[in-house]
Amino acid sequence: MYAVIRTGGKQYLVSPGEQLKIETTAHNDGAIEFADVLAVSHEEGKYESNLSGAKVLASVVKEGRGDKILVFKLKRKKQYKKMQGHRQNFVEVKINEILVNGKSFKA
């Protein structure tokens, strides 16, 4: 059982019980609900045709910041160099339940 959800401009393949890191999103009391479900499959190769009201429920495990990446810009022969660091914020969530067409799939 898996679903494809869209959040933070990216798409994720999720299944119940799985943990993943996503971009920081608003949550209330550690619970997140993903309503933008693109596909749901009970078994391999077969997809649900009606996704109205489909949603994925998750809980927040932790929040944090990712590893630092360095952004280096250089224009050769012009004496221009610029170095900047960046750390992306993330939320680690655990997928609890997938709801589709009145059916519930839990871990």
TrEMBL record:
GO MF annotations, alphabetized: rRNA binding; structural constituent of ribosome
Assigned keywords, A-Z: Ribonucleoprotein, Ribosomal protein, RNA-binding, rRNA-binding
SUPFAM superfamilies, A to Z: L21p-like
BP term (GO), one: translation
PANTHER family in the record: 50S RIBOSOMAL PROTEIN L21, LARGE RIBOSOMAL SUBUNIT PROTEIN BL21M
Function: This protein binds to 23S rRNA in the presence of protein L20.
HAMAP family: Ribosomal_bL21 (MF_01363)
Assembly mode: Part of the 50S ribosomal subunit. Contacts protein L20.
Name this protein carries in UniProt: Large ribosomal subunit protein bL21
Gene expressing this chain: rplU
